[in-house]
Design a protein that fits this description.
Blueprint: H1 23-54, H2 62-68, H3 70-95, H4 101-118, H5 128-136, H6 138-157
Helix pairs in contact: 1-2, 1-3, 1-4, 3-4, 3-6, 4-5, 4-6
Length: about 160
């Protein structure tokens, strides 16, 4: 009888994959968290600025009007929160060791980026409460994303 042409080939199971070096999940998590926020915030922010311009806001006051708009700033923080949690999720997924350290390092990297933005040689009219939120929120949000990945991974394993 001829061999079955549809039989899968004999092979050994794939070896367990070694965890990625710590820099990889931190880079990816930070890139996802900050990159997705900057992309979506720019699209929303540009649309809001065009709306303000179309409704008669002078260009000289445009940035002040945007940052003085509390609902817009709050919406930006909600958007940033989702993006940072997504970054923590991907950092934990790539690390796959169950540690919180990559997500924590993503939060630290994001805080450094916020501090660099605050050190610009010109003043952005960002409210003080928003600056504080931008420094405080990354740690719990990246960790929450990592916790979500751990829960999903544990549920899939059972």
């Amino acid at each position: 009888m001829p061999a079955n042409p549809f039989r899968p080939p004999d092979s050994a199971p794939a070896p367990a994959q070694a965890p990625a070096p710590l820099l990889v999940p931190v880079f990816v998590g930070t890139s996802v968290g900050t990159g997705s926020y900057y992309l979506t915030a720019n699209v929303v922010g540009f649309a809001f600025m065009w709306w303000l311009t179309a409704t008669g806001t002078p260009l000289a006051r445009l940035y002040r009007e945007v940052y003085a708009n509390v609902p817009f700033v709050l919406a930006s923080h909600v958007l940033a929160s989702a993006c940072m949690a997504l970054g923590g999720y991907w950092a934990a997924r790539i690390d796959a060791t169950g540690r919180r350290r990559p997500a924590l390092l993503c939060a630290v990297a994001t805080i450094v980026l916020v501090l660099l933005q605050d050190a610009l040689p010109y003043d952005l009219p960002i409210p003080g409460w928003s600056r504080i939120a931008s420094l405080v929120l990354p740690i719990p949000l990246y960790l929450a994303g990592a916790a979500l990945w751990r829960r999903r991974a544990q549920a899939a394993a059972t």
